[in-house]
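Hi Y.,

Following your request, here is the sequence exactly as I used it, all 462 residues.
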Amino acid sequence: MELRDLPALLRIFGEHAFAGVFHFLKRSVFLAERRPCSDHRWWEGPGIGVMYQIEYRPGMDWDRNFDDFNQSMRSDDGSLMFNGPFCRVKEWVALSKMIGVDYHIFETKWHDGICYFDTALTNWKTPVDYAGIFALESKEEGIPFLYYYSAVFDHNPMFDDIQPHPDRTASFLGNEKRYIDYALAQIEELLEKYAPDGMWIDWCWPDLLTGEIVKMFQLRYPDKILTFNASNYLPWSYKRLTYTSGEAHDLTGPYVRVFKIDGRTAFAFSSAWKWSNLNRRTLEQPWELVGPAGKWWQDPSLRDDPLDLLRMAAVIMSCGGKFCIGATAKLDGDIYADQVKQLEMLGEWYIPRKKYFRASVPLKYRTIEPDFVAVSGPVFRKVAARADGDVLIHLINMKGLSVDLRVEVSLSQLNKFSRVRIAPSDESLDVERSVNGIIVKIPKAMVDPVDTILVLKDALNR
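Below is the corresponding structure, written out as tokens. Let me know if you'd prefer a different format.
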């Protein structure tokens, strides 16, 4: 953790700062240990998800003036004059199937308060029951699905009289009884009417509504999945949620990036590499990181290096987490072409490697990289995991170099293993003995531009 990250991190922890600091100090001594999934429930281990997002509007920032926005969305009689996104849900589910996702999420209500489902509690809703279509299509294809629901902000005009800041997105309603009752009733509608696997709530906050949602699931829906955005950073949530979640927008960089939006200071969780390895060392419960398919939530174009998203997936999953990728819908319902291309690249890479991630859990080691593995080339980062009795060494190719690699593995922490293979081709590699262990030479033709996976067969079997 870098010193420049500390002020932003302490602001994130808020009133839970002391509990958070204590937890991470404890985990710096006693490392978290993840155990393999016994029944392979999708949410327990690594995997890939897609969150289909209806929040982006060209020319409008996340932090928009909702006085102006709501006025632009109203007809003369004050009702919603809906102008998109007109969701192409069947196409979205087909995209999920094609790229081999382990789960996906549909945004049923973002901070603008517009409901993309057939709710009886407001007329601020779409004319089509998109959540219902998403449920039917997901069940037909056998894809686990969650519903996103913004509980932290809601700019439905019916709450104008209790809205603290109608002129900005960040307007907290979670301590207002009328809004608490409304949100709980809508979550109940979604669960009862469409039977999703669970809910993805945006975001965890020290307000009354957050606690009421948690109690609702504990008492009435204990078999449903519940997670909150930002819960990775709040230790009080670890035993109360099915899995925890947070954001990571870039492959590398600082933990937190501070920037300006309309003259106001904002922050974003940045480095997937740093957050994944911190979570590997400190989180025992299942966890997830979320990031945009494009350059940013407000920029749906391809990243400068599209393989960075695949590298983020490899880092997150090899450290034991799920990676959920935000796909942006245009107003006509199409996902931006660049993002479709990005997701197709992800699927082509992920499908043949899925079994190596889904069945694995990270090894316990205190350093940010396993010190029993050395690799030639400074741009290759290392993560160590285990699957059954095998040890997996992930060599993350941070710059996409095509070079010969020399990998040395110390045997002091591993049992004698029978052979070394490279995934996903399952080809055997020649092994040389060294003073401390073994040396494996990988020709550049076998070096993956994203993640070269060495499989040390039977390294943990006695």
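The first strand starts at residue 47 and ends at 53.

Thanks again,
Q.
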